[in-house]
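Section 5.1 Outputs to date
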Amino acid sequence: MKTVTIVGLGYVGLPLACLCAEKGYKVYGFETNKNKVELINQKKSPIDDEYIIKKLKSLKNNIYATADANECIPNSEFIIVCVPTPVNKDNSPDLTALKDAASSIAKSIKKKSVLVIESTIYPGTVEEIILPILKNNKIDACKNDVFVAHCPERIDPGNKKWTIDILPRVIGGITKEAAKKAAEFYRSIINAQIVELKSVKDAEATKIMENTFRDVNIAFVNEMAKSFDKANVDIIEVIKGASTKPFAFMPHYPGAGVGGHCISIDPYYLISKARQLGFEHKFLSLAREINESMPSYTVSLLEEELDKKGKKIENAKIGILGLAYKADVDDIRESPALRIIEILKGKDAEIFIFDPYIKSKSNVSSLNELLKKSDYIILVTEHKMFKNIDAKTLKENNIKIVIDGRNCMDKEKIKSLGITYRGIGRH
């Protein structure tokens, strides 16, 4: 039985560890968060994700989590790095966790092991940062002392259709042999196409391009929503119409903001690296500016409707539906809800927050309590619970204004009951 160590047991690493164990590998999880280590060793998921919870409970081959690199790295033929790569306050890449992980690995990795970086990084990171760290420990990846490759993570938390085991992957290696060995490993666990690219830089750029593509298209539709709002055109109807074209159009949808650890972060990695190389990504920077404006725009919709009623946002009782950045998960990384709450607090509004997946950060115990205490609501997260709210329930709780930040509520029924409705690009 071959052994794999997954470095970082978060939203990316933990599902991968479960998959490796399921496919017959002996699996270690190297994680610096000791609370996570304890939970995982008890077969309990630190993440509120149905897929991971079920996998951990059903595994025949356990995942052994540890905070000691020496307990796992020297014993592993494969080491996969899945640590977070966020941005700093100035939106520059923060590679601290990646550098720390590489340093820990380099001290005890055995020769001829396969080292794969899954963390999202800008083109050149493996060659400029990972290889020098290895070289300082007398490991020359260019001579295949260790086989170093990049396989950008591809996972969509909460997606029950596209799970980790059936998503195609791309791989680039420092050498051809490194790419080949990494590809063989992924083919042993994934039932999908594994594409070997010509260089490690090509693989690094792939993930950045995928998510930047989405960011740019979301920015486009967000700007269209703002424009259509002025023209009293329903953006959802327009997207429905445009989607009938069988080529050259791909529907994206407007919203209260872009969150998560990919779309809202990855473009900055490319922007920052390109700037170092003397190129300015004006298009990408503008897309980020538009998408980052959406929380403020969402609040402005409420202010407009309050102004029509002769009311002010100061001391207004506002319910925030959702903290997570996407539907039916407990992930709040870069969530627009956090920015919306910050803006409302700055305007001295009275805020009631509820997320069924993140009760520890909610300040009311239930949706019913939120509705009873609020006069106005802003839906930020498209949780099933919120999508299914009956408009009559809103009326019974005397909700006067609904700001639907995901365009997912029953607009016509809400309006028919005399409640003011505003979506993103729809009245």
